[in-house]
Design a protein that fits this description.
The chain is mainly alpha-helical. The chain has 6 domains: about 110 residues, no CATH class; about 150 residues, no CATH class; about 230 residues, no CATH class; about 90 residues, no CATH class; about 80 residues, no CATH class; about 100 residues, no CATH class. About 45% of the residues lie in helices and about 5% in strands. The protein has 33 helices and 10 strands. A hairpin with an 8-residue loop joins β8 and β9. α2 crosses α4. GO terms for molecular function: electron transfer activity; heme binding.
């Protein structure tokens, strides 16, 4: 039997929704027409073609219940006439509409008789899981208690039981310490740490290990990186090709690292980032008082969060107001995706096509931040920098600058005196009749010289003697330069002036906020008041009643920050704990961490998500206790091998095994450096520089490149700092990090990709960073065991893999080194070496093996 296209599509719908499923307008059809149709047909002030698709009752002229073939709605969709804009409906979506009509075009409940023009938030929208209050669920009891270590396990086991799965066996101790150390610090454990943990038979050994790692300064450097991804941290402005540098952004990075190490409550952490200036009681004109108090300086520093999006307004865009509004739009993306797990970008121009977020919602939310951004009087990046000088330091700097001015004026007077003396000699070389006129021309300001005077000077240029003293008398020029050098040296004694990149408001500045037609700032429509998204706002709570601030700012952002961290917001805690879980387990409970809306994935363990969110809030918004809850669980401590889980749950949505995953970019680079012993542990401060080398690679070092040539000079210890301290340029990512999926901030990174692509293998085979560290690793193991090749190899195994080499490993490796040494000797005998080059084939062969070890899955992956 041959199916007609309509019948085939209906068959698809039956397969998708179940042969006996009764479709309803609210649950099945409205999400489709909202995404594709109601933007024009119902949500505008006047519905296009007088067709309103927001309610079933408005569709009587478009559908024939029971007969999809006679329904005009189906006809215009199938013909491609509708929708006129955007993506057409998929075959499955059309099939759903057809099946719904065939079943009688039912609704789930009576509809209102009329609707006001514009968007509507339905009961189904309000019932969506992400917008429901967080409610602490009971810990499941019908699970095997013998497999549980923390309450987390009960939730995971309850879901696993649906597929008859059990936890994988616990990972062995060497695997476990390598895993948790990389997880919490981003660095490999040392062989000594591994051996001590393996030898510790105490039942509390693992718990003590976790506590020790959480107390390490390396913890903050590792977990700050996760947050810096989400907020789009970079040391450059992006936006335009200039990608100008943000020389003071690093203070925000350091603030995040310190906050992580101090286990600052995230309620405080978020409030400081959104409204630290208001907490500190400062405005644009009164910031100076904040720098006298370290806590208030910290709060001001935190507000750089609101300035991390790409911003090219300091690079001279043709339309400054357009660029300012684009920067604000990008920052709104960062703020909402990082704190609320929502995408709001499309609501800038029209009502969100999938989620219940209206355009008015978007501009109400933006109005909270308008006094700080104030696009009509936009302040470019350099005008958002605040000096860290104390009054005493400023007074000393001004005094020194005054003395420098005196010295420079003295040098200028010396130069003029010497030039005047030279002039009196040079003028004698001119014809006597022209000397008075030349003398007058020289004494006349250049912009007031007559044509005759200019011609006379052009006739005798060497007699002018008003500049380039060195052309006449180099010794006298040296005297002037020496005097100027005194000023330069004195200026070098000024107290170093630091700056904070921050957001502040202009005191008592409350610009009106408007909804922009189609997102165009040149088409303002109605005034909007600051407010929460309608789907989240709760009638019994006033989240946006401005907080009175001592500095005279509006208090809008502080009020909003307090609402977000009140524990009553349905999204903030869920969004945060979902990311924490993702970074530990390799997969989020909601595996679209920046989108909890309709286009995002549904939570695999909604009860666990709410349990963690509630535990986080009730625990004072502290992250370290939540780490312990997850890390001490049986779910985390599993082996990565569980054959039944691989078959029943290939994506590991049920967590019946530990997710095998590759080292991320920073852990890879840092662990390579640490294994060789050259990693510099210095924390905080300005970033290590980067540049493009002659091969086109971006590497650490001092950029000496020109317009026509690339060059990077070594920067000493700065080249070997942890990756979090390496400069992040949006337009120039470091090659070794970029190749292994370090994100480019456009504007932020909600979840990192983890690819396996050919350039990674090529980099491990050819990149000088890998080759140099392979040589360093070979040098290290030879230095530690100068005469024992087996011990050298075993030490390399311990440093990189956290375990001893097996006899088979040693046999194969020794054979490789021997064969490679012979080949290298033959090679060196066949070529002429440069003077001073002394080949060392055995060491080169060992370095070649170390490179292979660096490139092995055993090093690259965390089990």
């Amino acid at each position: 039997m041959k199916l007609t296209p309509a019948a085939f599509l209906c068959t698809l719908a039956v397969i998708s929704h179940g042969a006996d499923a009764v479709l309803t307008f609210e649950k099945d059809v409205r999400p489709i027409v909202k995404a594709h149709c109601t933007h024009c047909h119902g949500e505008e002030e006047k519905a296009k073609g007088d067709v309103d698709l927001r309610l079933r009752r408005f569709m009587d002229d478009l559908i024939t219940p029971g007969d999809p073939a006679k329904s005009k709605l189906v006809e215009v969709i199938r013909s491609g006439d509708m929708p006129e804009e955007g993506k057409p409906l998929t075959a499955e979506q059309l099939a759903i509409i057809e099946k719904w009509i065939a079943q009688g075009a039912k609704t789930s409940k009576p509809e209102p008789l009329a609707l006001a023009p514009g968007p509507m938030i339905s009961d189904e929208d309000r019932a969506y899981w992400a917008f429901q209050p967080v409610k602490r669920p009971a810990v499941p009891r019908n699970v095997d208690a013998s497999q549980m270590r923390t309450p987390v396990d009960a939730f995971v086991l309850a879901k696993m039981a649906e597929k008859n799965l059990k936890f994988a066996p616990e990972a062995d101790r060497r695997t476990l310490i390598r895993r948790v150390t990389l997880d919490l610090t981003g660095l490999l454990p040392t062989p000594e740490e591994v051996d001590a943990f393996v030898a510790d038979k105490s039942p509390l050994a693992y718990e003590q290990l976790v506590d020790c790692l959480l107390a390490s300064k390396n913890y903050g450097e590792r977990w700050a990186r996760h947050w810096l991804d989400v907020v789009g941290y970079a040391d450059s402005n992006g936006f335009s090709e200039a990608d100008s540098v943000r020389p003071h952004a690093w203070r925000y990075r350091d603030y995040v690292i310190r906050s992580m190490n101090d286990d600052k409550p995230w309620s405080e952490f978020i409030q400081e980032q959104l409204a630290g200036d208001e907490l500190a009681g400062v405005t644009h004109a009164s910031y100076q008082q904040a720098v006298l108090d370290p806590k208030r300086t910290d709060q001001l520093t935190a507000t750089a969060f609101m300035k991390l999006a790409p911003d090219g307004t300091g690079d001279g865009p043709e339309d400054q107001k357009l660029a300012a509004n684009q920067t604000i739009a990008e920052q709104m993306k960062v703020m909402t995706s990082s704190l609320m797990g929502l995408t709001v970008a499309c609501a800038q121009c029209h009502d969100h096509r999938y989620d219940p977020i209206t355009q008015a919602d978007y501009y109400r939310l933006r109005a909270i931040f308008d006094p700080a951004y104030f696009w009509q009087g936009w302040r470019s990046p350099n005008n958002r920098l605040y000096s860290l000088y104390t009054p005493e330091e400023r007074a000393k700097a001004n005094e020194i600058e005054k003395k420098v001015g005196d010295i420079n004026r003295e040098a200028q007077a010396m130069s003029k005196k010497f030039l005047d003396e030279i002039f009196e000699v040079e003028i004698l070389k001119l014809p006597e009749a022209e000397r008075p006129a030349f003398r007058e021309a020289r004494a006349t300001a250049k912009d007031k010289q007559t044509a005759e005077q200019k011609a006379l000077i052009k006739k005798y240029p060497s007699a002018l003697a008003t500049y380039s003293l060195d052309l006449y008398d180099k010794k006298k020029q040296d005297l002037v330069l020496a005097k100027m050098a005194e000023g330069t040296a004195l200026r070098g004694t000024k107290p170093p002036e630091g700056f904070v990149m921050a957001i502040t408001e202009v005191k008592q500045n409350m610009p009106p906020s408007h909804l922009f037609n189609r997102g165009d700032h040149e088409q303002p429509k109605q005034v909007v008041e600051p407010g929460e998204l309608g789907i989240i706002a709760q009638p019994d709570i006033e989240p946006l009643k401005p907080v009175k601030t001592i500095g005279g700012s509006t208090g809008r952002r502080l009020a909003y920050a307090q609402w977000l961290t009140s524990g009553k917001h349905p999204l903030v805690a869920r969004t945060l704990v979902n990311r924490f879980w993702l970074n530990h387990m390799g997969r989020g409970i909601v595996n679209t961490p920046g989108d909890f809306g309709r286009l995002g994935e549904l939570p695999t363990h909604p009860e666990l998500l709410d349990y963690l969110a509630d535990e986080f809030v009730k625990g004072g918004w502290k992250l370290k206790p939540l780490h312990r809850l997850i890390l001490l669980s049986a779910a985390y401590r599993q082996s990565s091998v569980n054959d039944p889980s691989l078959r029943a749950d290939p994506e590991n949505k049920l967590y019946a095994r530990f997710k095998l995953r590759r080292l991320d970019a920073e852990a890879l680079r840092d662990s390579m450096l640490a294994a060789t012993g050259v990693l510099v542990p210095t924390s905080y401060g300005p970033p290590s520089g980067i540049g493009r080398d002659p091969q086109g690679r971006v590497v650490t070092g001092i950029d000496k490149g020109t317009i026509t040539a690339n060059k990077v000079d070594p920067a000493g210890e700065a080249d070997f700092r942890r990756s979090i301290y390496v400069q992040v340029r949006r337009s120039r990512p470091v090659t070794v990090l970029d190749t292994f999926d370090a994100p480019t901030m456009t504007p932020n990174c909600e979840m990192r990709s983890q690819t396996t692509v050919a350039p990674q293998s090529l980099l491990l085979m050819n990149d000088t960073f890998v080759l140099e560290n392979a040589r360093r690793l070979a040098d290290r193991v030879v230095k530690e065991y100068p005469t024992d090749p087996r011990q050298q190899l075993d030490r390399a195994w311990q440093l990189l893999f956290g375990k001893h080499a097996t006899e088979a490993d040693l046999t194969r490796s020794l054979a490789y080194v021997e064969a490679q040494t012979k080949a290298l000797k033959d090679y060196h005998h066949s070529i002429q070496h440069a003077k001073g080059v002394v080949p060392n084939p055995p060491q080169e062969a060992l370095a070649s093996l170390c490179q292979i070890l660096y490139s092995s899955n055993r090093f690259l992956y965390v089990e």
